[in-house]
Write a structure and sequence with these properties.
The chain has 360 residues and is an alpha+beta fold. The protein contains 10 helices and 17 strands. The relative contact order is 0.12. It catalyses: beta-D-fructose 1,6-bisphosphate + H2O = beta-D-fructose 6-phosphate + phosphate. Homotetramer.
Length: 360
């Protein structure tokens, strides 16, 4: 190419890309459109829609669930402001279980007792924090509630998620008089509802009435629980095992063998020492939670009536399994001890059944 041609080529203007046609921005929604957008289904509305599924659907059980949700809102407030209101830390004594009682344990216990008493449908309460049955004075109430008002409360000082666990029974004693021990000692299969409230990065109420498991998330600005997880199902097999490995040498051989297998398969160990938090994570991701018997606690540590039974009913409704070793939790008969303890292995069906087979 000649020098003249090169100069002509260099002087030629570069080809400019054709600009894309301008896209008009979406108009902002009008006030009417924003107001017409649904905010979701509240717990109250959901309960009304589902009331026909409740046994003896006359409204009492619906009211009980509302009372528990109300107390949960109050406890959520106290948990969130615990550091500012100086209600963290231990009370300086032990509860009836021989465990260090936390200030928030006492606060939560009072809140749930008041809410269930004022609601009028609960005739008696069995709480982890009290040795005997708490009579509410509602002697014509048709239901009793067994509850752990604040499980894992020792973790509040380090800002780890904690929770409430509850179980509801229809009383078998004659209405018009005080509730009796047999109202609480009906066995796990007799529960008409069970659930938990998780106080974490968000507060969730998860419960079952025997027709699947439903989750609600608390919206602080509106003061309402909204339906967020309409049909919770636990995966058949999960990647997590949750156990306090510090007690390894005190565990039965079948537990150590199972945990060794979990590690060989490269399952992930996740354990924070707050039952509701560990359970909640595994419910959504899949996995197994283990609280085995030890030399110091040969019958286990967790309470059958208000920890093992309600979580077992939930996990079965979500497609999982709960056992005490060889036995299914919901089939374990209660004794006369209202604070009866039991081992607990709970979570994804394949993992728990594998452990159960090792225990046989």
């Amino acid at each position: 190419m000649t020098a003249k041609a090169l100069l002509k080529s260099a002087a030629a203007p570069a080809v400019q890309p054709v600009p894309a046609p301008a896209v008009a921005p979406e108009p902002a929604p009008t006030t009417e459109e924003r107001l017409a957008t649904p905010v979701g289904t509240t717990l109250e509305r959901y309960i009304m829609r589902k009331q026909a599924e409740f046994p003896y659907a006359t409204g009492e059980l619906s009211q009980l669930l509302r009372d528990i949700a109300l107390a949960g809102k109050i406890v959520n407030r106290e948990v969130n402001r615990a550091g500012l209101s100086r209600i963290t830390g231990a009370m300086g004594g032990d509860n009836v279980q021989g465990e260090a009682q936390q200030k928030l344990d006492v606060e939560a216990n009072i809140r749930f007792i008041r809410a269930l008493t004022n609601g009028g449908e609960c005739c008696a309460i069995l709480s982890e924090e009290d040795e005997g049955i708490i009579q509410t004075g509602n002697q014509h109430g048709k239901y009793v509630v067994a509850i752990d008002p604040l499980d894992g409360s020792s973790n509040i000082d380090v800002n780890i998620s904690i929770g409430t666990i509850f179980s509801i029974y229809r009383r078998v004693s004659r209405p018009g008089g005080p509730a009796r021990a047999e109202d609480f000692l009906q066995g796990g299969r007799a529960q008409v509802a069970a659930g938990y409230i998780l106080y974490g990065s968000s507060t969730m109420l998860v419960y079952t009435t025997g027709h699947g498991v439903t989750g609600f998330t608390y919206e602080n600005s509106l003061g309402e629980f909204f339906l967020s997880h309409p049909d919770i199902r636990i995966p058949e097999r999960g990647p997590v095992f949750s156990v306090n490995e510090g007690n390894w040498f005190d565990y039965p051989e079948f537990v150590r063998s199972f945990l060794t297998t979990c590690k060989e398969r490269r399952l992930t160990g996740r354990y924070v020492g707050s039952l509701v938090a560990d359970y909640h994570r595994n419910l959504f991701t899949g996995g197994i939670y283990l609280y085995p018997p030890t030399a110091a606690k040969p019958v286990g540590k967790l309470r059958l009536l208000y920890e093992c039974y309600p979580l077992a009913l939930l996990i079965e409704q979500a497609g999982g399994v709960a056992v005490t070793g060889a036995d299914v939790v919901l089939d374990v008969p209660p004794t006369a001890d209202l604070h009866q303890r039991a081992p607990l292995f709970i979570g994804s069906a394949e993992l728990v059944r594998e452990l159960q087979a090792a225990a046989l």
